[in-house]
Design goal:
This protein is α/β, with parallel strands linked by helices. Helix content is 44%, strand content 16%. It has 2 domains: 128 residues, Alpha-Beta Complex (Aspartate Aminotransferase, domain 1); 233 residues, Aspartate Aminotransferase, domain 2, CATH 3.40.640.10. It is built from 15 helices and 13 strands. A 7-stranded mixed sheet has the order 3-9-8-7-6-4-5, with helices on both faces. A 3-stranded mixed sheet has the order 1-2-11. It has a 3-stranded antiparallel sheet with strand order 10-13-12. Helix 5 runs parallel beside helix 6, helix 13 packs parallel to helix 15 and helix 14 packs across helix 15. The protein is globular. The two termini are 40 Å apart.
Length: 386
Amino acid sequence: MFKQQLDEFAAKHLTRRLTPLQSGVGPVVEMAGRQILLFASNDYLGLAMHPEVIRASVEATQRFGAGAGAARLVSGSLPSHQELESALAQFKGTEAALTFSSGYLANIGAIPALIGRNGLILADRLCHASLLDGCRLSAADFRIYRHNDTEQLQSLLAARRQARRTLIVTDGLFSMDGDLAPLPELSRLAQTYGADLYVDDAHGTGVMGAHGRGTAEHFGLEASIPFQMGTLSKAFGSSGAYLAGSSAVIQYLMNTSRSFIFTTAPAPGSAAAATAALRIVQREPERRARLWANRAQLFRGLTKLGFTLPPSVSPIIPILIGNADRALSFAEHLFAEGIYAPAIRPPTVPDATSRIRVTVTSEHSPSQIDQALASFQRAGQASKLI
């Protein structure tokens, strides 16, 4: 059975394989014995290799061990976790925060805890898989609305039973298209119809907003979104995730979220690394300035070359191709040029929307971006995309 399914994947050009790195996460990495420019990392601010972040991880590991040894509610709650949660709450301007071992665990644990039987969840069609899985794991009725279609969302809200407990679920910054959710309108609809809004800001945390506090800050809505989730594995360069909110919400999740209760606590080194990264994010706004300058240079160059780009407003710049086979071919030409930006294919993205998902960081130099653009041009011509 498994061999047959794998053969079907291969026939559709949907087989996946691991591509190991022999070095750190960029912007220049060693792959297959070569020096390669990496344009696929979510380490947006270059903090995964920052000496201060690494030192904090090493010191916490030496003091508390490589692992926490137990779930937080047993004996795994260490100073590293408490310091991180306090720093996150202060950063997000909320009363409290709760950390999870990954963004996936946060979403599949928090959403079912927040809404259950007799409730209704309305989620954007392009929500991350972890959000959709969290919605499905709840006992609530679950409906999808078209991507960023607030008119359809309003229709669904208006048609529901009056006063029915309802949760609107969305990414803040969508991971595959690089566009933003219309949070002001979503927040308005939530307030008008008595619903709650849950925002996954995995890719907005550290990047969006004047201080890097995410898409809620970007839109001036920090006091209006009750459930703000984010990850520590992207702009913060570590691993794990958090949910920030009121003290009551956090205490409730601590007592009801199965992926928190029944999971060994995050490694103390990871928590300490995230706390150090958070300090740097607040101390060095120039990192975000470099990131946005690099993003503008790359987006402008790809547009000028004639690639088909969605209306991304973030460091995530997808080059839409459509056919999975052509996307793979383009990625192979890029790799031959010394650029790693892999093809993204279904089921990660909808059918017929295969793409190269290009990501840029604050640590790419202008000359590296120019080098990449020249390679994208040659690979695009060889693949007959431009």
